[in-house]
Structures are given as structure tokens and as C-alpha cells.
């Protein structure tokens, strides 16, 4: 792998002294990631991956390496009508998708803005808001199915205890509803749906929760079966990939599955100081002013 060199920007100021001060001040942003630094970073990341998959690691990994309980990718035979929710930022999406012979034959997507009030409110209020959006969706598009399964894409760090159980580890980005941390967000959503849809004949149930990288991996495989990694680079960054079950040492359950999708949750990578050699003063200043200080995210 060749080294990445970002050339210094061209700066022309009439005052040469001022120009030099600006260049000196921004010198840490003109990065030269040399082969030695890249190799060191790769070794640290790989070590953290192994620690995260271990049963009794010598130290806690900064990568959660969560088993998503998703054992396989699309095979081209998908059928049925499903709803889905996507929560990961200030925009919340509700979808209805119909599959036939492994292809999408119909799709409805509605986007809802999540204002600051609902990003910092008690958990019940957040889930009630999400359920209200679902209620609006089924009324607007006159959905009258008696029973609908709905997948939940929840783009925040969580512990997966089962395919339909996601325990929030911590909030990231612009969310902070403290009383949700440590609780099952699927239960919170299902309870809110029961409250908001009790007068409706339609019954909506959430049988599965994933994060956006897992969803990206699944969608990638839906388009190209060679896909093996799901990568998110946006407000936050993260990746999921396919791992052999025998390499997931911390998994104690019985399964006939040969593989599982692993959600690395790399947003905390380096929070223990192992990547400090790559950070600049600007990284530190930015971190200090975020909603979640002392975190890589």
C-alpha cells in the first residue's frame, strides 16, 4: 500500500509573515501518513478486533465486535411485504417494501425530521414520536394489513442479545436520551407501537434490529453477491463484515450457522489512547465541543 500524501495548500498572501503564521498554524492538517504509521494503525486495529471477539480478553477492546445474529445474506429468493424504520440522525425514514422473486417490485419511502426536542427527551417520548410517524405513514398510504413485520435499523452502538433484542450502549451523534441507555430499544419501540396503534386494526411487530452498516452489507449483497463488507462514512463511521462462527470466541450459544455478520462498532476505536499518535490539536478541540466528549465519534 502506497503512502498517502496530502500536498500543502497553495496560499498567497501579500503579507509574507502572516502567510508563514497561517501555514505554521495549519501544519498539523497537512498530513503525511507514512507506511510505518499505516502499518502501526493496521496492527492496532487487528489486535482490537481479536480482543473484541475473544472470550476472556487480556484487556477490553475499543471495538465492540457485536454478533448481529444475522447468519446469511440475500440469496435472490426473498418474498413478502415488509415495513422498515431507519433511525440514525436528524432524519427518520419509514418504508414499505414488497419483494417478489428476490426483487423489489414496489417501495414507499417517507422521511420525517427528528427535531432537537425528540433527540434529548425521555425515552418514552422518543419512541412515541417514532410510533406517531409510523401511524401517520399507514394512514397516509392507507395500509390496512392485519399483521406486518417491520425491521428496525438503529444506527447507534448496542449490545445484540438476539436478532430482536438491542441494548443501547451509548448515544452518539446528536442524540442523548439518557434513560434509554442500557435498555432494549426494540421493546421500547414495540411498546410505543402498541400504545399508538391500539385503535387500529393493523398490528405491527419488530422481529429484527440491525445497525446501518449491517443494512448496508445486506443491501450490497442484494445488488452484488460478492459483497462482504458494509461501510458507513458519514456523521459517524462504522463497518460490518462476515465472520466465521468459530472465530467468535465470546459467542456461547448453540447454532448450526457457519457465519455471522459482525458489527465492529469502530466509533470508539482509539478511545484508550492507542491512536493518539495520529490525532491533531484540531481533533482534540473538536472532540471537546461535541455532545459526547472524550470519544472518537
UniProtKB/TrEMBL annotation:
<dbReference type="GO" id="GO:0001678">
    <property type="term" value="P:intracellular glucose homeostasis"/>
</dbReference>
<comment type="pathway">
    <text>Carbohydrate degradation; glycolysis; D-glyceraldehyde 3-phosphate and glycerone phosphate from D-glucose: step 1/4.</text>
</comment>
<protein>
    <recommendedName>
        <fullName>Phosphotransferase</fullName>
        <ecNumber>2.7.1.-</ecNumber>
    </recommendedName>
</protein>
<dbReference type="InterPro" id="IPR001312">
    <property type="entry name" value="Hexokinase"/>
</dbReference>
<dbReference type="GO" id="GO:0005739">
    <property type="term" value="C:mitochondrion"/>
</dbReference>
<keyword id="KW-0547">Nucleotide-binding</keyword>
<keyword id="KW-0067">ATP-binding</keyword>
<feature type="domain" description="Hexokinase C-terminal">
    <location>
        <begin position="229"/>
        <end position="295"/>
    </location>
</feature>
<keyword id="KW-0324">Glycolysis</keyword>
<dbReference type="Pfam" id="PF03727">
    <property type="entry name" value="Hexokinase_2"/>
</dbReference>
<dbReference type="InterPro" id="IPR022673">
    <property type="entry name" value="Hexokinase_C"/>
</dbReference>
<keyword id="KW-0808">Transferase</keyword>
<dbReference type="GO" id="GO:0006096">
    <property type="term" value="P:glycolytic process"/>
</dbReference>
<dbReference type="GO" id="GO:0004340">
    <property type="term" value="F:glucokinase activity"/>
</dbReference>
<feature type="domain" description="Hexokinase N-terminal">
    <location>
        <begin position="32"/>
        <end position="221"/>
    </location>
</feature>
<dbReference type="InterPro" id="IPR022672">
    <property type="entry name" value="Hexokinase_N"/>
</dbReference>
<comment type="similarity">
    <text>Belongs to the hexokinase family.</text>
</comment>
<dbReference type="GO" id="GO:0005536">
    <property type="term" value="F:D-glucose binding"/>
</dbReference>
<dbReference type="GO" id="GO:0008865">
    <property type="term" value="F:fructokinase activity"/>
</dbReference>
<keyword id="KW-0418">Kinase</keyword>
<dbReference type="Pfam" id="PF00349">
    <property type="entry name" value="Hexokinase_1"/>
</dbReference>
<dbReference type="InterPro" id="IPR043129">
    <property type="entry name" value="ATPase_NBD"/>
</dbReference>
<dbReference type="GO" id="GO:0005524">
    <property type="term" value="F:ATP binding"/>
</dbReference>
<dbReference type="GO" id="GO:0006006">
    <property type="term" value="P:glucose metabolic process"/>
</dbReference>
<dbReference type="GO" id="GO:0005829">
    <property type="term" value="C:cytosol"/>
</dbReference>
<comment type="pathway">
    <text>Carbohydrate metabolism; hexose metabolism.</text>
</comment>
